[in-house]
Amino acid sequence: MKVLIVDDSRAMRMIVKRTLRQAGYRNLEIIEAVDGRDGLAKYKAERPALILSDWNMPNLDGYGLLEALRAAGENVPFGFVTAQGTPEMQQRARGAGASFFVTKPITVDALRNNLSRFIR
Amino acid sequence: MPVNHNTFQELVGDVLASLAFADARPSEAVFRWSQPGLFWSEIRLDAPHTGQVTLALPRPLAVELADDALGGLPPSLTEAALPDFLGELSNTLAGNLLARLHPGKPIALGLPQTGRGPRPAPAGHTFSFDVGGTSLGLTLETAACASS
């Protein structure tokens, strides 16, 4: 199963990958993108089954990426992993079609609780 | 809404423990911004109120935290990811701080900037933390900052 991780921080992408492994998801094919614009290109090229995206990024932020995907009719499950996790922003994200919202710092439990319905 | 110092110190401890498995304890030591080998990261607070969070620590502690957070990488990789990791740390601290201060309101942050070397102390109050015997400094500059 392909999972696309979109974050402008290389360190954070590494942390998400490590936490996925710790949560027991060891057989994923991880694709990485450095911002929303790169994420859109990588999505089109790789067609991942799930996207984990930061919110605050240069060029195109995570919310913009989600909007672009949904406007193109793409219904791929999309979750935010972000430090900006207020209830209002979560509501806004869900309204735009986000499946879940994980607040940084991420934990194994938070990832597992949100991803178990998408990753077998 | 004023920032309660105890709340801020607790938040820093929680974030460092979760992200880097580090035990950060509030310290009375005065943080030295002029020390050589300093690594720092700063991030702008844009909404609900404006300000800045600046994090600084000596290189050995930065390497240790990054290594713990990133999962025991080869030293060359940890070194390369260091500025990025510190940026992520300040981003997470700032996001959590605003979320705690302004529940339910949208948050906007700038993008983290990182650097190395001695620097002037930023405006605002610097909190010192002891992490395994090494001092970490964190400055909060905001109109909403007030002593508890």
Characterization of this structure:
The complex is a heterodimer of chains A (120) and B (148). Chain A has 120 residues and is of the alpha/beta class. Chain A has one domain (2-115): Rossmann fold (3-Layer(aba) Sandwich), CATH 3.40.50. Helix content of chain A is 42%, strand content 19%. Chain A has helices at residues 10-22, 36-46, 62-71, 87-95, 108-115; strands at residues 2-6, 29-33, 50-53, 78-82, 100-103. In chain A, helix 2 (36-46) packs parallel to helix 3 (62-71). The mean pLDDT of chain A is 94. Chain B is of the alpha+beta class and 148 residues long. Chain B has three helices and seven strands, in the order αβββααββββ. In chain B, strands 1, 2, 3, 4, 5, 6 and 7 form a seven-stranded antiparallel β-sheet that branches. In chain B, strand 6 and strand 7 form a beta hairpin. The model of chain B has no long low-confidence stretch (mean pLDDT 87). Chain A binds chain B through residues 8-12, 14-15, 18, 56-58, 82-89, 92, 103-105, 107, and chain B through 15, 18-19, 66, 69-71, 73, 81, 84-85, 87-88, 91-92, 94-96, 98-99, 102-109, 111.
Topology:
The complex is a heterodimer of chains A (120) and B (148).
Chain A lengths: L1 E5 L3 H13 L6 E5 L2 H11 L3 E4 L8 H10 L6 E5 L4 H9 L4 E4 L4 H8 L5
Chain B lengths: L4 H16 L3 E4 L10 E10 L3 E8 H12 L4 H27 L6 E2 L3 E4 L8 E7 L2 E9 L6
Helix pairs in contact in B: 1-3, 2-3
Attribute tags:
heterodimer, A: alpha/beta, Rossmann fold, 5-stranded parallel beta sheet, globular, B: alpha+beta, 7-stranded antiparallel beta sheet, 3 helices
Summed over residues and divided by their number, the pLDDT of chain B gives a mean of 87
CATH 2nd-level architecture of chain A: 3-Layer(aba) Sandwich
Cα separation of the termini of chain A: 9 Å
The amount of beta strand of chain A, in percent, is 15-25%
* Elements of chain A, N to C (H/E): EHEHEHEHEH
Distance between the termini of chain B: 12 Å
Q: Briefly note the CATH topology name of chain A.
A: Rossmann fold
How helical, in percent, are the residues of chain A?
40-55%
The largest pleated sheet of chain A is described as: 5 strands, parallel
Largest sheet of chain B, in brief, is: 7 strands, antiparallel
Sheet-strand content of chain B, in percent, reads: 25-35%
The top level CATH class name of chain A: Alpha Beta
Number of strands of chain B: 7
The oligomeric state of the chains shown is heterodimer
Of all chain pairs, the largest interface belongs to:
A-B, 24 and 29 residues
Question: Count the strands of chain A?
Answer: 5
Low-confidence stretches of chain B: none
